[in-house]
């Protein structure tokens, strides 16, 4: 087995460990909270919201702290691109997806505004402590918005997903099961992050490409697999609002929560995270274009048809092809 292939296997193994670890951590924490009598809304807006983003948070912070900023930022930007072009495009190829559910319009605006803010804050080619604090405040404001919307009984798909704690914590068992789930999650997350950062940095070095390319492609695609699975199931069950809410909520958390904690952690221990100028060449603009596209569908009230799904999916394939051509040619 060649060295680049070994590095790729290490990254893929890290993603698998990371996703399973995050799932165990969330399930154990939710089950523990339910046993403590904590209201489902509070559990959803804290444990579920941050727990489902834990894999991305851990790997981005680990990458930034290990001197691999391209992986850290590439994970955020690449995941947001994949969430729209792939996670919405692929299911729509099979079943058209409606975009008129309550709350989707506001979440589309917030998701797009979050991406614009991220680009603006990192325009100086740095994600520093100040930027991290601003983004962290953003996730706090977003959670407050969700809490207020929930109290007004708004049928927001993002809230529905976060507050479905019965399914999240199911099957964990008693105290022993909770303890085992939490232990697996706490141990697996840093192991997965280490495998990804080490393998990703080595793979980029051996292929002669920037680390950001690995973050934008392999890592972003791997961490977007749960959203893709959820969207496929939701689309087949004719619950397109769940799929769209899942993508929009994930993109907001990628920017505000993952970007925020990465900026704060790196800013407190280093000078921040250096942003590769290559992000301003293609990737940032693809992320903004993807966010604008889904917002346009939502505001026009147009379903994402099979034709539109094909355009989104082919757009993702074209984006990956462009990255390969730019960096490998």
Describe, in short, the structure shown.
The protein is 79% helix and 1% strand. It is mainly α and 329 residues long.
SSE layout:
Layout: H1 3-35, H2 40-51, H3 54-65, H4 69-85, H5 89-94, H6 104-121, E1 126-127, H7 129-151, H8 157-162, H9 165-168, H10 175-207, H11 211-223, H12 225-236, H13 240-269, E2 273-274, H14 283-300, H15 306-328
Antiparallel strand pairs: 1-2
Helix pairs in contact: 1-2, 1-10, 1-11, 3-4, 3-10, 3-13, 4-11, 4-13, 4-14, 4-15, 6-7, 6-13, 6-14, 7-13, 10-11, 12-13
Radius of gyration, in Å, reads: 19 Å
Largest beta sheet, briefly? 2 strands, antiparallel
Query: With helices defined by DSSP (H or I, 4 residues minimum), what is the helix count?
Result: 15
At the first level of CATH, what is the class?
A: Mainly Alpha
**Helix and strand string, N-terminal first?**
HHHHHHEHHHHHHHEHH
pLDDT < 50 stretches: none
Helical/strand content category: mainly alpha
Could you report the average pLDDT, rounded to the nearest whole number?
A: 83
How are strands sequenced across the largest beta sheet? 1-2
Estimate what percentage of residues fall within beta strands.
under 5%
Number of domains: 1
Transmembrane segments: 6-26, 38-65, 71-95, 107-126, 132-151, 172-193, 213-236, 243-264, 284-301, 308-328
Subcellular location: Membrane
Domain Sodium/calcium exchanger membrane region: 8-147, 179-322
Membrane topology: Multi-pass membrane protein
């Amino acid at each position: 087995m060649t060295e680049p292939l070994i590095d790729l296997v290490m990254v893929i193994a890290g993603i698998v460990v990371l996703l399973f670890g995050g799932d165990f951590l969330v399930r154990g924490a939710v089950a523990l909270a339910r046993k403590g009598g904590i209201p489902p809304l509070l559990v959803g807006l804290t444990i579920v919201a941050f727990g489902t983003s834990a894999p991305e948070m851990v790997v981005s912070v680990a990458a930034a702290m290990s001197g691999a900023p391209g992986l850290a930022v590439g994970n955020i930007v690449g995941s947001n691109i994949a969430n729209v072009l792939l996670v919405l495009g692929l299911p729509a190829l099979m079943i058209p997806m409606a975009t008129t559910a309550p709350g989707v319009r506001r979440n589309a605006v917030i998701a797009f505004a979050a991406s614009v803010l991220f680009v603006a804050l990192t325009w100086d080619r740095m994600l520093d402590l100040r930027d991290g604090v601003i983004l962290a405040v953003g996730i706090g404001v977003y959670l407050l918005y969700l809490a207020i919307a929930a109290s007004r009984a708004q049928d927001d798909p993002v809230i529905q997903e976060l507050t479905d704690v019965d399914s999240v914590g199911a099957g964990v068992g008693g105290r022993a099961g909770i303890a085992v789930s939490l232990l697996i999650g706490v141990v697996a997350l840093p192991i997965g992050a280490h495998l990804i950062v080490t393998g990703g940095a080595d793979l980029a070095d051996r292929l002669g490409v920037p680390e950001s390319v690995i973050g934008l492609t392999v890592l972003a695609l791997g961490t977007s697999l749960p959203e893709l699975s959820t969207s496929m199931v939701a689309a087949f069950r004719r619950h397109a609002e769940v799929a769209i809410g899942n993508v929009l909520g994930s993109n907001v958390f990628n920017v505000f929560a993952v970007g925020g904690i990465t900026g704060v952690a790196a800013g407190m221990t280093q000078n921040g995270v250096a942003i590769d100028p290559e992000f301003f060449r293609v990737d940032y603009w693809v992320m903004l274009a993807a966010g604008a596209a889904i917002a346009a569908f939502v505001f026009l009230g147009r379903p994402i048809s099979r034709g539109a799904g094909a355009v989104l999916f082919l757009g993702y394939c074209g984006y990956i092809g462009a990255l390969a051509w730019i960096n490998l040619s």
